[in-house]
Amino acid sequence: MIWLNGLSGNIKILDDLMRLIASDYLMPLAFSLSMFWLWFSGKTPSQRMTNQLTALTGSVRCPISNVVVWLINSLGE
Predict the structure, then answer these.
(1) What angle do CA 64, 69, 70 make, to 5 degrees?
(2) How far is CA 25 from the centre of its chain?
(3) What pLDDT, on the 0 to 100 scale, is given for residue 11?
(4) CA separation (Å) from 33 to 4, 27, 40, 41, 50?
């Protein structure tokens, strides 16, 4: 893995890709798209209901986890 670390700052496209992956925008987007997909997936009405409840649960828990992380980060300042 040391060779990978040596590439840092030398290949702009790789640096930009890593910056995008680690950004605060990609994970919420991926989460939102997966919840959107989950909401409409399922072959039977009972599967769709289960998936929709899962999407609602995930959508409620994500902001809660964001607040917990914010509080922990605030304690460190």
Answers:
(1) 95
(2) 8
(3) 86
(4) 30, 10, 11, 12, 18
Tokens of 54: 């899962």
What ranges do the domains of the chain cover?
2-75
**The tokens of 43 are what?**
């072959």
- Segment 11-61, tens digit of pLDDT: 899 889 888 888 777 878 888 899 999 999 999 999 999 999 999 998 899
How far is 11 from 39, CA to CA, in rounded Å?
A: 39
Nearest partner of 35 among 68, 59, 19, judged by Cα: 59
Exposed / middle / buried, residue 62 (Cβ in 10 Å: 0-12, 13-18, 19+): middle
pTM of the complete model beyond 0.90:
no
